[in-house]
Design brief:
InterPro entries: Homeodomain-like_sf, HTH_TetR, Repressor_TetR_C, Tet_transcr_reg_TetR-rel_C_sf
CATH architecture of the largest domain: Orthogonal Bundle
Pfam families: TetR_C_1, TetR_N
CATH superfamily of the largest domain: Tetracycline Repressor, domain 2
Strand order of the largest sheet: 1-2
Protein name: TetR/AcrR family transcriptional regulator
Oligomer: single chain
Mean pLDDT: 90
Number of domains: 2
Number of strands: 2
Organism: Mycolicibacterium rufum
Shape: flat
CATH class of the largest domain: Mainly Alpha
Order of helices and strands: EEHHHHHHHHHHH
Number of helices: 11
Distance between the termini: 47 Å
Low-confidence stretches: 1-14
Keywords: DNA-binding, Transcription, Transcription regulation
Helix content: 55-70%
CATH topology of the largest domain: Tetracycline Repressor, domain 2
Radius of gyration: 21 Å
Length: about 240
């Protein structure tokens, strides 16, 4: 797994752990990501984080107001990594699609357990504000007025995070469960009664392949096509 990015601790004075490591907000975020990826978000607590960084549980509160604040910071870290992976293209739609791909890639391909845990969270932090600013700006470049851009932003965010959460959740299942679910689609043609479900039976050979791979790229293209065809002004 690619190691989480570390950034300066925003001017906070660093403290040393029992092992001599400098404590900072970023050290706690690193530890939280590693815990989530290996054990799931439910294990996050002041004690598990303290054990991970080698400090007393109370040290956490020098940098965060609560364990939930750590999770929000983790969510903002995911967005920041995606922004680092993204670059603007010449056309606003290409830029917007590439931004969606960058965020999806971090949530699903790089940190799936963490992506599943934080996809529903609002951080209110710097990277989230950056991505809102970029997205609204790109939509305005496409000719959308402020109100319509806000509506389109909401729809795009829900599509992207919903898709990422769905796929990250599937990857979080055990290999045995994923294999069983995939087998159900592979065997669909044999199980569907043609007389009772003729449409499903006709589509079954295609679904057998389609349901075993991500639909993100085809869904993204569909969403972008609809966006380009939608009105630029609020009625």
């Amino acid at each position: 797994m690619t190691g989480p990015r570390r950034e300066p601790a925003g001017g906070r004075r660093r403290r040393r752990t029992r092992a001599g490591t400098d404590l900072s907000r970023e050290i706690y975020i690193d530890a939280a990501v590693n815990l989530i990826e290996n054990r799931g978000a439910a294990v996050l607590s002041a004690r598990t984080l303290a054990s991970a960084v080698g400090a007393d549980p109370s040290a956490l509160y020098r940098y965060f107001g609560s364990v939930d604040d750590v999770l929000r910071a983790v969510a903002d870290r995911m967005i920041g990594i995606a922004l680092d992976n993204w670059s603007r293209s010449e056309h606003w739609m290409d830029s917007l699609a590439d931004l969606a791909r960058a965020i999806y890639g971090v949530y699903v391909n790089e940190f799936p357990q963490t992506g599943f845990a934080v996809a529903t969270r609002t951080t209110g932090l710097d990277n989230e504000i950056r991505v809102v600013e970029l997205t609204i700006g790109l939509l305005r470049d496409g000719g959308f007025d402020d109100e319509t851009a806000a509506h389109r932003f909401r729809s795009l965010a829900d599509f992207l995070l919903g898709q990422a959460m769905l796929e990250a959740a599937f990857l979080s299942l055990s290999p045995e469960v994923r294999s069983s679910d995939n087998a159900a689609w592979q065997e669909l043609a044999e199980r569907v009664p043609h007389t009772e479900a003729p449409h499903a039976a006709a589509a079954a050979p295609h679904l057998r392949a389609l349901m075993l791979r991500s639909s993100f790229e085809s869904s993204l293209q569909l969403v972008m096509s609809g966006l380009d065809a939608s009105p630029r002004r609020a009625s």
